[in-house]
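Subject: complex prediction, re-run

Hi both,

The earlier run crashed halfway through, so I resubmitted it with identical inputs.
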Amino acid sequence: MLVRGLGRVALAWVLTYVLACALSELAPGPPAERAARAAARLPDEARAPEARRAIIAAVERELELGGGAAARIARATGRALTLDLDRSWRDRRPVGEVIAPGLAATGGRALAVLALALALGLAAGLGAAAGGGVRAGALGLAVALALSLPTVWVCQLFLAATPSAAGSSTLAVLALALAPAAVVAAHARAAVDELIASPLAAAVLARGASRARLVWIHGARLSLPRLAPLAASTVGFALGAAAVVERALALPGAGRTLANAAAAGDVPVVTALAALAAATVAATAGVAHALARVADPRLDDASVRPDRGRA
Amino acid sequence: MSEVESKDPLRTRRVALAWLVALAALALAADCVASDRPLVYARGGDLHVLPGDGPRGDALRATLGPADWAIWPPIAADPIDVRTGGELRPLAPPSPAHRLGTDDRGRDVAARLVHGARTSLTAAAIAAALATALALLLALAAVRAGGTIEAAILALCDVLAAAPALLAVIAIGGLTGARGVAALALLVAIPRGADTARVVAASFASTLAEPFVAASRAAGASPARILLRHALPHATSTIAAAAAITAATTILAEAALGFLGLGAPPPTPSWGELLAQASQHELRWWLGVPAGLVTTFTAAAFLRVSRR
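This time it finished cleanly. Structure:
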């Protein structure tokens, strides 16, 4: 299982690199010219055409951007396989140096978002299932609202409510966890509704357990494995929306680095961050799947094969 | 009370549809709702209806005599150009002249909000149409081919749909240099189209297993006819729901990209750009709150319409 999981992470890393390099070839203008423009070193074509051509040629040599598109994609893929992240087009520093300072902050926040979304979502979903009626209706409205609020506006509302909290990671985690928690709540409630309609629920209630115990104990235990697939999408959302939240709350992080690199057209930085995000999402999916199988062995296909135990 | 109404006592679906229809009408008629050109005016005995050129705003008002008259749009301000008659009022709070105040260049926020609806809804409509076309193409190709090709197409859809949407949109925008409404729509449409294709392919497969399809096949109907005449109509509600979700995703992505400065290029009015201005200018409420509310209502309306 571990080997398969690592294989998926490696595949996500390499595929994203290849795809990103291929996409960057669709951008208008030769790569060397775009790299020079990203570094703001390109004079106006009309004023100094010779100097402009010389700078583009120098950038092409310096960043090895010559040859055709296929050669550039092959070079980038080779570098990705050896974990060489290339150099930033904007400031010529190694990409690792550019992105490293923000990785820990954004990664930590993504993990906190995952934990908070699971806790909040599970509590809300189970609470609605236990209460039924009005609580279930309120959950439906809350889920719809949480999924419709633009993340940037959520940050602004938080900042307006607590002006001194600018630069707070807690606010960032809260803002990022809102939408994933809504999705978790909806799934948890659906899982418990299914449980309540199952023979297991009748058996548990017949043994004298209360409805609250059925929902909060049995419901939580049985719905957790079903929430595992949401872990990857939650981390993916947290990494993507980090660009917005970090800028809105003036926080340092990889999301802000991505937004700045995307605005400047710094292809190596954007590619590396996209590949890292893809690998992180793949790793989260693998870990969540493994944990879900530990929590509920029935998810293991081998253990529920219809021919198992037959002569 | 009908069964549908008993499940939705607040009639939220109708409210959502009404909001979307009103917004679409507003977007279509934005030039008549928010503009510094009068709808009709009479000057020196000449009647001008929906004038496309000539004097505007305060310049026109100054030329109108006692016998002349003009009917102005409800928001008599241009969303892009500032014609103030000499007084520039950036970041002015709401007043009778500017009911939702002005932005950092003195432009009327209400006018930019109305014209921003056009930007957001255009992106949403293009994205929904592209995603639906892509989904139908992929699902029809997968179900028609079957076997390994079907598995390969659905695996590709799985990979594309699993990509974090906002991160993918930001990254692809940075890699390709794509900016503007059409680029945003295309970037959202690709992963959403792949996601929709999986659902539509499942719907097609379910319909193709029905006895009436076997009867149709036995009667000599070709595979293409079965897909187009039987499978496709049964998937209509699924496709419509997915298109509404795509539209909601686009509205939220436009707000995020506009805020990051990666959306529609200036001076195009957009809701995301108003939210960005609110962040840049000490959260002035007239910049952020109206744009946040309309973005939320519109995304919520699309999501509500997507559910039965």
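Chain B has 13 helices and three strands.

- K.
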